[in-house]
Amino acid sequence: MKPLMLQGHERAITQIKYNREGDLLFSAAKDSKPNVWWSLNGERLGTFNGHGGVVWCLDVDWQSIHLITGGGDSSCRLWDLETGKNIATIKSNSSVRTCNFSFSANQAAYTTDKAMGHLCEVFVIDTRTVDDSLSTQDPILKWEITDSKVTSMLWGCGDETIITGHEAGDLIQWDLRTGKKIHSVKEHTHQINDMQLSRDGTMFITASKDQTAKLFDTNSLELLKEYKTERPVNSAALSPILDHVVLGGGQDAMEVTTTSTRQGKFDARFFHLVFEEEFGRVKGHFGPINSLAFHPDGKSYASGGEDGYVRVQSFDQSYFDYTFDYNRD
């Protein structure tokens, strides 16, 4: 199948996400305008205009009513999805690096960078009523991160915990009732670039600069599986229907000329979830892949690259027919 090439950004893609139904695909980039697309045919529906610089992160609530974005202009913004209107702008002291709605979408969390004399902070806000009062409302909860800054974040099960991935490779689980640390693990040696939940929320996968992606149990943070590559992993996603994992990454543009000319630096790579073995690659991007997402039906996936393109790739029948050879006793 020929992929759909979505060209709507002038600079590198930072994050892409599907809504729950999978009919909409959202993309954020180092330009200031997040986009929304029809995932079926790649038609651009519109842009969300208001940020004053790079947009690092975005998330859509489960009813596809509101969008939350965070950017380098030190603001977290909430948008009306239907009209593209900026409903609320929450100012922060530094760049907003991550943002996520909780599963119920009654709350949202976002984190800020350690910069300009300010510590990295985690904020939790009430999003049951989204209007301009959010711009001035105090967060329900906030706490400072004194160690390495948060680079990725997820909501845990039942909206009771938040899991943060850090620059130094730590994973920390926080209790939302108290804002206190429940426990932490350090299975990565470098920055965690991305974290994505499995379909049922019981597991999540991390992508790290230490050239690995790892599968963890959401409740206990127990390490379950590890997927190794030869270059930094920027993003990893879990198939909702098969035991498959897709990884994407590659060296930074500045480092590419100093590495070997081996091909395949920017491929999307498919691994078996259980056996940790690579079984396929998809070429296409002209630079590192920065973000990956499986379509909720598992029949296609999207990738966003440093080249500014979003590619939507549908799977051929051979992908679904493929089976691993292993002995059943």
UniProtKB/TrEMBL annotation:
The keyword Cytoplasm applies. It is found in: Cytoplasm. One of its GO terms (cellular component) is eukaryotic translation initiation factor 3 complex, eIF3m. GO terms for biological process: formation of cytoplasmic translation initiation complex. PROSITE patterns: WD_REPEATS_1, WD_REPEATS_2, WD_REPEATS_REGION. Keywords: Cytoplasm, Initiation factor, Protein biosynthesis, Repeat, WD repeat. SUPFAM superfamilies: WD40 repeat-like (SSF50978). One of its GO terms (molecular function) is RNA binding. Its main location: cytoplasm. WD repeats lie at residues 6-37, 48-89, 185-226, 282-312. SMART domains: WD40. Gene3D superfamilies: YVTN repeat-like/Quinoprotein amine dehydrogenase (2.130.10.10). Component of the eukaryotic translation initiation factor 3 (eIF-3) complex. Component of the eukaryotic translation initiation factor 3 (eIF-3) complex, which is involved in protein synthesis of a specialized repertoire of mRNAs and, together with other initiation factors, stimulates binding of mRNA and methionyl-tRNAi to the 40S ribosome. The eIF-3 complex specifically targets and initiates translation of a subset of mRNAs involved in cell proliferation. PANTHER family: EUKARYOTIC TRANSLATION INITIATION FACTOR 3 SUBUNIT I. Belongs to the WD repeat STRAP family. This is Eukaryotic translation initiation factor 3 subunit I. It comes from Euphydryas editha.
